[in-house]
Amino acid sequence: MIDRRGVIASGMAVAVAGAARAAGHGGAEDARLAGLALPPGFQGMLALGRAGHIVAARPVGMADIEAGRPVSAGTRFRWGSATKWLVSTAVLRLHEQGRLSLDAPVARYLPDLRPDDATPVLVRHLLSNTSGIPDLLSRQVGQEPELRTSRAPALAIARRFAGAPLSFAPGTGWDYAALNWVIVAALTQQVTGDPLVATVQRLVLDPLRLRSTGFAQADQPDMPALAAAYGVVDPPERKMAPVPPFLAASGTVAGSAADAVGAAHGIFHGALLNAASRQELTRIHWADQDYALGGRVRVIGGTRYAWEAGKVGGYRALIAHRLDRSETIVVFNTTDLDQAVISALAEDIARA
């Protein structure tokens, strides 16, 4: 019996790889992806990029099982916490423009938020998850599920949850706290007068011409060609929990593999950021986690990679960009795989 979905997906892979070969690439890069053993039930996209363009891609499975829509070059995926990378880039651009400083206390921009801290929380502490502000927001979500669908502005959420005593002195510990990024969203809106979504669009997405990337959240228009995500059950059930707008900075961006490659090249090798900002973006602030600003920097086979990973609902994303030359690995998954599995796939591609 012919697996119609497999035939469709294989056809899409041939079409995408053919486009790459028409641009002068393919061959070894196609083989690098085609030879990769994937976990059972994997659905999503694998891609390799060079200098901002895809040179090989392997779409796998269905973007929407119920609608019979296969994954294609134009399919968009949620990036989860890789959103933080784009937001950190926007903050660095504001820093370059003199509109804020990474080393300024948060209280300079949000004076009523934490005015009494003996050791001030700096903007860079938020971006590196070293602020010491306890994540009371995440703890409250279980008791107050309506927060998941709230449209409260980021500043209101920050004011409600950011007033507790610090868990540790800023810069002396690490906590992957969603509340840090709510505060970042509130802070940028105070500085620019615009919601975070508009600021990232103006400072990052538009200059890099990321036409297939945007914020997939309740207060934004529905995103065409967005893949559905599924839990690890049989038959598969959708796993697409709503993400409230006040979490925009921590995990609501979605886009195509081509845009992920374009973003990595533009941020780390293009003219979007100056050299000092690129260095800031990749300087590790917490070594035990390889964490820099808005993402990690990992060494694979002796080579440094910006390592932008994320998960939300059943979506998994990993954008790994080689820092010594512009090569990008993209792994997008929509079947709720363990993040360690996604990382292992990217490492296998990097070492191939």
From TrEMBL:
Pfam family, one: Beta-lactamase
One MF term in the entry's GO annotations: serine-type D-Ala-D-Ala carboxypeptidase activity
Record domain Beta-lactamase-related: where: 44-335
EC number of this enzyme: 3.4.16.4
Alphabetical keyword list: Carboxypeptidase, Hydrolase, Protease
Protein name: D-alanyl-D-alanine carboxypeptidase
Organism from which the protein derives: Sphingomonas jejuensis
